[in-house]
Amino acid sequence: MYKVIGATKTRAMRVMWMLEELGQPYDHLPCAPRSDEAKQYNPSGKIPALVDGDDVLTDSVAIMQYLADKHGALTAPPGTAARAHQDALTFWLIDEMDAILWAAAKHSFVFPQEQRVPEIKDSLKAEFARSAAILSERLDGPFLMGEEFTIPDLLATHCINWSIGAGFARVDDKLGNWAKSMRDRPAFKAAATREG
Q: What is the torsional sign of CA 110, 116, 119, 120?
């Protein structure tokens, strides 16, 4: 059985949601980043980590793609143009949404007080809003890659949820309604309400 390392209100939620979508059982160790528990699985203390047998995997996106490939679901097949398009969107989401949110978090509570530059957050919020508008314009169907739920849907929804919690401006109605439909998925609800 898989084990997910990391609190639900972190990127570990992505992995938990993925496992719920795949119908795979897992244990959950809801530890905080940089905690002694987290460092047992990743020396840097970063979460999430996924334990699969003797292997410990790190980085939420790498873990999600590993699980999708291993179980043959929620992804286009490797070596196809569809997969290249999916990967391009996944990398764009990491660069243009996730990285912006992480930068804002670092200047809010991650960095020591003396290293924080609170003034940067306004420009980060503006950049996120620009990216959200691009994503909304791209959305043309029930899912980002067309008719099938894939990793980019999960990743984008998690970023939108994170932006709400971080006090960023709401995305437009089209994207907001789409994100709500993703949060209404039974697998999302199961992961979000999981306790340890």
A: negative
